[in-house]
Amino acid sequence: MRVLDLGAGRGGFAAMLRDAGHEVFCIDDTVDLVAGLPERLGTRLHVVGQVESLPFLSCHFDVVTAAQTLHRYPPGLALSEIARVLKPGGYLAIAYNTRDDTVPWVRRLIALMREADPSSMRGNYGEDSVDQITESPYFGFLERRNFRNWMPITRDGLISMVEQRPAVARLDPVARARLVGDVGALYDEYARAPDPLMLPFQTSCWRADVDHSKLVIAEDFDDVLRITL
């Protein structure tokens, strides 16, 4: 399929699409990131641009993907553009990784983190942007599937993940040292050396069919201002 990846960044998701056999175009608004994509992906199909004004022909792509990026774009502008560049029968595919809080040690980690930052490790970051699709006239049936993934993480890796949180960096040295010590103790309690702990994530995926009928102004369409040139 011909795929457009929105907010491609360094091309990690695009590389997986390419490896699956698809022809992948990327768009991102950061020049330096787009400049590195030809070397990583082996193609020159990538542009710097805005999702709200896609520089592509109408009906050009089979699929448009947004992996961890849909919340960046204003839906009133972006969704009509995404629909425009999709072929009839095409669809918008969305993915978000969220931390799985059903594992006991992860719940304890979250409790520790929220002592420093009450908003830390919220599990549904970005997902609320998907709700806009159900309200959009440019997309029809929205299908969802969830997948659990496990990421191995070492003691140093877990502590580094905690220390990189902005709220943790702002703590005074004593409070930060106490938090880091508690996280290390939590790891030691649950890990079974030499194996690392497995950090669970849930990948939520949505697929929405495009509906082009609302992109065309019909003769009986009243909510429009006609300007004759």
Your description of this structure?
- The chain is of the alpha/beta class and 229 residues long.
- The chain has one domain: 3-Layer(aba) Sandwich (Rossmann fold), CATH 3.40.50.150.
- The protein has nine helices and seven strands, in the order E-H-E-H-H-E-E-H-E-H-H-E-H-H-H-E.
- Strands 3-2-1-4-5-7-6 form a seven-stranded mixed beta sheet.
- Helix 1 (12-19) links the parallel strand 1 and strand 2.
- The radius of gyration is 22 Å and the shape is elongated.
- The two termini are 39 Å apart.
- The mean pLDDT is 90.
Helix/strand-derived category reads alpha/beta
Overall strand count: 7
User: What shape does the CA trace take?
Assistant: elongated
Q: Work out the count of structural domains.
A: 1
CATH architecture: 3-Layer(aba) Sandwich
Give the spatial strand order of the biggest sheet: 3-2-1-4-5-7-6
Which band does the percent of strand residues land in?
Answer: 25-35%
**What's the overall average pLDDT, rounded?**
90
Q: Using only CA atoms, what is the Rg?
A: 22 Å
Short description:
The protein has helices at residues 12-19, 31-35, 37-41, 75-85, 104-116, 131-134, 155-163, 166-169, 173-190, and strands at residues 2-6, 23-28, 46-48, 61-67, 86-99, 139-153, 197-210.
